[in-house]
Design brief:
Elements (H helix, E strand, L loop, with lengths): L52 E8 L4 H17 L5 E8 L5 H4 L11 E5 L3 H6 L8 H10 L2 H6 L1 E2 L2 E2 L2 E7 L1 E6 L10 H11 L2 E3 L5 H7 L7 E5 L5 E6 L4 H14 L4 E2 L11 E7 L3 H8 L3 E4 L3 E4 L2 E4 L2 E10 L6 H14 L2 H11 L6 H5 L1 H4 L2 H11 L3 E3 L6 H14 L8 H13 L4
Parallel strand pairs: 1-2, 1-3, 8-11, 8-12, 16-17
Antiparallel strand pairs: 3-16, 4-5, 6-16, 7-12, 7-13, 9-10, 14-15
Helix pairs in contact: 7-15, 8-15, 8-16, 15-16
Length: 436
């Protein structure tokens, strides 16, 4: 059952063909004269002596306001250094990357973001709302040649490049206490044993679809989606009700029914009475500081079910910038693309890594020694080499809700090994449901 993008090693240089400088829409290609987009024959004179005022709304998570305000200041400095006399008023609004598709109800309103951060799995609903401008010309070339292929794939939907990648580390893995594990644990069975031996817990938030949704694909079950030209899902076929899916259900049972299992996350320390914890890449710096010399991290462990051993899958997604085409105005749209390109440039991705610890998508940034040797790059490379990732791109809605329902039923005891096959049939039916 086809479901995964083939992921490339993060640290490897990738050969990408140059896209032709052909516009995919009249509002997406930067004209020679950004203040007179309807007159391509006007000589290069990008600004009037006094310039104009360009108002842009930029949305991102609450904890990134200060960071982006610094980036906006750099953008304005760069534009002034180019001789641009325009005044750029950039308003920051707080819409989380995982919620912007639902929080913005009117993409044509003045309050709607012109440029916005979003998580890669939101590309389908955003596309269906018409909220993603197709990139053409130099913008498309910039994205497809400057970024690694997996993140270009995440920015592409229905044959169109629709976004600017900037963060390639939206994933999770196992943090562990080095005082308990002299070497990195390789199997869940090893984690179970150490937790029991020390009378402590391990944490794995399987009641959340971001974690359980990947786990249920660990033995090879998956789905295929069929879409029409508008991006609407017309059919979903899945095979979680087969032996592959049932083994994954048994794996969830095995983990959640271990007496040391804990759903809630926290750094694995003596204070928290944890030996290990599955948590996101975004908490790496915090865990490292909290745990000190006992800080350990490794790829997701393997698990053995019915004599078959596999790595427990994790999602690998990215963060991208979308440009909203629905508010109108050529000048506004050009400025929005220019801002998105600047924010996702090599220099700004390096700045983001320094300030936020997120792994760049820019090929040249990934080659720098500091990033190539970082914990984040190492863990992503190692997991990719072990075929441990499920690409977090356009996904069926049920991949979140169905595994959460399964985890809840295991937790309350209504799903056991005796009826796990029936539970996986329910999960399969839910995932195959096409949303209206």
């Amino acid at each position: 059952m086809k479901k995964n993008l083939k992921l490339f090693t993060i640290g490897a240089a990738m050969l990408l063909s140059l896209g032709a400088l052909v516009s995919c829409g009249e509002n997406t290609t930067k004209p020679d004269n950004p203040d007179t987009p309807d007159n391509p024959d006007t000589p290069d004179n990008p600004d009037t002596p006094s310039g104009t005022t360009v108002d842009l709304v930029f949305s991102g998570p609450a904890d990134s306001r200060e960071f982006y305000n610094e980036v906006f200041a750099k953008f304005k400095e760069a534009k002034a250094a180019e001789g641009d006399k325009n005044t750029y008023n950039i308003t920051y609004v707080e819409f989380g990357e995982d919620k912007v598709d639902s929080l913005v109800t009117d993409w044509k309103s003045a309050a709607a973001p012109d440029v916005y951060c979003y998580a890669s799995d939101k590309i389908l609903p955003l596309y269906q709302k018409g909220a993603l401008a197709e990139l053409g010309g130099e913008y498309k070339t910039f994205v497809t040649t400057a970024n690694n292929q997996v993140n270009v794939d995440l920015a592409t939907f229905n044959g169109k490049v629709l976004a600017y990648p900037y963060d390639g580390s939206n994933t999770y893995f196992l943090y562990y206490d080095k005082s308990v594990f002299p070497t990195a644990p390789k199997t869940w069975e090893e984690v179970f044993a150490k937790a029991a031996e020390t009378n402590k817990k391990f944490a794995y938030p399987l009641k959340t679809g971001f974690y359980s949704g990947a786990l249920v694909t660990s033995f090879g079950a998956g789905w295929e989606m069929t879409l029409d030209n508008s991006g609407k899902v017309t059919d979903i076929s899945a095979d979680f009700d087969t032996a592959k899916g049932i083994k994954a259900g048994k794996a969830m049972l095995k983990i959640m029914k271990d007496k040391s299992f804990q759903n809630d996350q926290a750094a694995p320390t003596d204070t928290n009475k944890l030996v290990a914890c599955v948590d996101g890449s975004w908490n790496l710096a915090t865990y490292k500081e909290t745990m000190g010399e006992n800080f350990g991290y490794t790829i997701m462990p393997t698990i053995t079910i019915d004599n078959e051993t596999v790595i427990t899958k994790s999602f690998l997604g990215g963060k991208l910038l979308g440009v909203n085409p629905l508010k109108g105005g050529d000048d506004r749209l050009v400025a929005a693309h220019e801002l998105a390109q600047f924010v996702t440039s090599e220099d700004m991705q390096l700045f983001r890594f320094k300030e936020k610890g997120t792994l760049p998508t820019n090929i040249e940034a990934l080659k720098t020694e500091e990033i190539a040797s970082s914990e984040m790059a190492q863990i992503i490379d190692a997991t990719n080499a072990a075929d441990g990732y499920l690409a977090q791109g356009a996904l069926p809605a049920g991949i979140w809700s169905a595994p959460e329902t399964l985890a809840a039923s295991i937790d309350d005891g209504s799903t056991t090994e005796a009826n796990i096959d029936k539970a996986m049939e329910v999960l399969n039916t839910t995932i195959e449901k096409v949303s209206d």
